[in-house]
Amino acid sequence: MSNKFCRYLTNGIRVQSWGNKLAAAPCCYTLPYTALDDPTFDAKFDEYRRLDKCDQCAGRIPSDPTYYVRRSFVDIEDCEHTHPVHAEISIDTKCNAACLSCDDTLSSYWAEQNIKFGIKTADDYPDILPDEEVVQQVFDKFNFAYVKKLNLRGGERMVSRANLLFLERLIEMGFSKNIEVLITTNGSTHAVYRHIELLQQFKKITFTYSVDGVGERFQYLRYPLKWEKLQTVVDTAKSIGASVNINSTIDPLNIFYINEIKQWVSDCFDDYDNFNDCHYPPAQGIMSLDALPIKARQDLFRQHGNDPTIRSLIYGSRPSEHAIKNFLDHLDFWDQCRELDWKQVFPAAVPYYSDYYK
Question: What whole-number distance in Å separates Cα of residue 314 and Cα of residue 124?
Fold first, then answer.
């Protein structure tokens, strides 16, 4: 029987590219990742399956810290086995963007940027395993015969050859017709014929597009992607009737422009029957809302206090002078490298940081 506390613990799996290895955990919100070739892998997962509590989800959605535990009962049916029913797969870091909210652990283009601008050298990055070997390792470790929901995450899935090989294997094994596929994508690449041919073999396909801003604000945060290309990619998805989600990662810059994002979503999808929802998760790491000054929080709350999205984001972070300094240093360094200027692109944020430049 599935774990009575959280079904992700028995029947969820998240596989993540980890340097030149693969690692896994029951979900992306819970216990530490374990390398697939770790000799204690099976024993650790047996231990996870028996847990009757887990506090690692707390704080992900501050207004409802039990969200992911409850969500497991929606995503995963009660099972008499311990094989994955809900799977999140991020088996390589191939990506064509260096988004400010990301880093080189999830994006090959970030690695290229770090090498180009002297942050790291090529020797700092391990040799990448061949795509065929990566996919084989996943199928050697897990039984996908029971999977009902599959979330393909990045890198960037639409430029990943390993992703195509993974989908092909599911089709060859006869599992695809029972699987709903969610592809998280940056919206930079049209689905080529091979993608469409493969995806048609699955029960349902949903694209989640990462849209952190509109126009030049999108281009700044998801460098070097282009806004016009994203719009044509989204229009193509709508033309084939695909289900669509929007995911906007909120940071100390675009939090001042959430209404602009919401207006674009409304204009683009109000008359589209297969639009599901728009989510606003907070950025993590150096772009987190811990770098949002107290005065900005106060003003945002006064202006948007009735907006549950803003309220949840503000309450879920903790202001820190150290975080603000690191955030501004990060922006200034990459602005110089990329010949950009965050102050011109996000003027509403500028007054709240003026004291830190004196």
Answer: 36
